[in-house]
What does this fold into?
Amino acid sequence: MPFAGPPGPVRLEENLTHTGRPAGGPRVARQSRSSTTREHLVRTAHDLFYQRGFHAVGLDQILAEVGVTKTTFYNHFSSKEDLVVETLRWHDRWWRDTFLAIVRRHGGDTPRGQLMAIFDALHAVFAGKDYNGCIFINVAVQFPTQHDPAHVIAAEHKKTMESLVRELAGYAGATDPGALAQEIALLMEGAFVTAQITGDPHITDAAKRALHRAIEHYIPQPVVG
It folds into this structure.
């Protein structure tokens, strides 16, 4: 039976052409001016934080980019820190949906094929001109205290992504879905960081070889004949 993952449309062409920052993201059909302003603040802050760093970007710079006053800002957020948290939550929702969509695109309808395609999908991300690493790794470094709200969201995101891979591994018939998901998650983290440091998107080739060995170990192909 084809594995389609959770429901919900994701515009693949748009998502695959961007890399480090979401070109789509969660949307609603109709928005009030207030909700549009809030989304504009989040989207603008996201792009600035991602490209320049969370501490390097001040609130005044964000407000100037959006074209709103501090009074308007404080109608939506209590502080810059509150905006940082909302930006990360927004990216978390977007990336989970997009990750599942792009592995379906590259891996087809079978869970095994989708697992095999994880680094084909990440290669498309790493090859983009705007790629500046994983935003959650970046935030964990820039907010190193583990109880900081931004750091907490980053840690939760990584756990959620590993859970998504574990679920996919279970559908694929892995003998130990948790162990396979942990190995894949570690490979993904290494690829995110190495691609950011070296600027070489082809680092996924080595990660893919390791991934295939892990999949063959945990999901052996049936012997024919």
Remarks:
- Residues 1-32 have pLDDT under 50 and may be disordered.
